[in-house]
Amino acid sequence: MAFIQIIDYRTDRPDDVDQVLTDWINATTGIRTARRTRVCRDRHDPTHYMEIIEFDSVEDAAINSNLPQTQATHEAFVPLCTDGPRFIDLDVLRDEQL
């Protein structure tokens, strides 16, 4: 079953957060199990962001989470947040292209 994780956070350093994500993408090429990421900003609160990460399964998410590169990224990311991060874990029950 497909799995999505949402990382909900606030930051006043979005460029630094973006660089942390870019560094993680580069460091995990060929080993990560994440299939897609989308970073979104709240139109009504420019400090509020959500990253939506897609996986083929919850097992793949666990593998990805346990990568040393993911752990290092988390340690670099948290100090950049003014609130959060909060993690929301979702099983995908229905997925249709509309």
Short overview:
Helix content is 33%, strand content 36%. By secondary structure, it is of the alpha+beta class.
What would your notes on this structure say?
The structure is a single chain. With 98 residues, the chain is an alpha+beta fold. The protein has one domain (3-91): Alpha-Beta Plaits (2-Layer Sandwich), CATH 3.30.70.100. 33% of the residues lie in helices and 36% in strands. The protein is built from three helices and four strands, in the order E-H-E-E-H-H-E. It has helices spanning 14-27, 58-65, 68-77; strands spanning 3-10, 36-42, 45-55, 83-91. It has a four-stranded antiparallel beta sheet with strand order 2-3-1-4. Strand 2 and strand 3 form a beta hairpin. Helix 1 packs antiparallel against helix 3 (68-77). The two termini are 20 Å apart. The mean pLDDT is 97. It comes from Plantactinospora mayteni. InterPro entries: Dimeric_a/b-barrel (IPR011008). This is ABM domain-containing protein.
Please give the structural blueprint.
Layout: E1 3-10, H1 14-27, E2 36-42, E3 45-55, H2 58-65, H3 68-77, E4 83-91
Antiparallel strand pairs: 1-3, 1-4, 2-3
Helix pairs in contact: 1-3
Task: Indicate the structural class.
Answer: alpha+beta
State the CATH architecture. 2-Layer Sandwich
Number of helices: 3
Q: Poorly predicted ranges (pLDDT <50, ≥5 residues)? A: none
Beta-strand residue fraction: 35-45%
Q: Could you tell me the CATH topology label.
A: Alpha-Beta Plaits
Structurally, how many domains make up the residues? Answer: 1
Largest sheet: 4 strands, antiparallel
Question: Helix-strand pattern, N to C?
Answer: EHEEHHE
Cα gyration radius (Å): 14 Å
Query: Which percent range fits the helix content?
Result: 25-40%
Number of strands: 4
* Strands side by side in the biggest sheet: 2-3-1-4
The shape is globular
- Average residue pLDDT: 97
